[in-house]
Design a protein that fits this description.
Elements: E1 8-12, E2 18-28, E3 31-38, H1 47-57, H2 59-62, E4 66-72, H3 76-85, E5 87-94, E6 97-103
Parallel strand pairs: 3-4
Antiparallel strand pairs: 1-2, 2-3, 4-6, 5-6
Helix pairs in contact: 1-3
Length: 107
């Protein structure tokens, strides 16, 4: 039997195409990991911000104390929104990815 697919949060365009996706992994009762992926090319303004908001607004994620996020290196819109939504404790480059750890505000 195949393992179930990890939960996903998707941002779709007006035409139904997927613009951005977060793959979620619940590490333990306090920690969640989110891998953020954005479609290449021109995207509608605010797509990256909407993805971060969708992740942080998910009830299963809001109930955690810390989020670990991987995002494309150099994606300042996502990084800025992460700073606005959580308290960044660490962030660093890892190849073409940026790894971020943030404390979530108490709900």
């Amino acid at each position: 039997m195949a393992a179930p697919a990890p939960p996903r949060i998707a941002i779709d365009g007006d035409d139904g195409s997927t613009l951005a996706v977060a793959t979620i992994d619940f590490i333990d009762p306090d920690v969640v990991r989110a891998a953020l992926h954005v479609s290449p090319g021109h995207l509608p303004p605010g797509t990256r911000t909407r993805l971060v908001d969708a992740v942080f607004d998910d009830p299963d994620i809001r109930s955690r104390r810390q989020v670990q996020v991987s995002l494309p290196l150099g994606d300042t819109e996502i990084l800025d929104r992460l700073r606005e939504r959580g308290v960044l404790t660490t962030f660093r480059a890892a190849g073409s990815t940026c790894l971020v750890e943030a404390d979530l505000p108490l709900a």
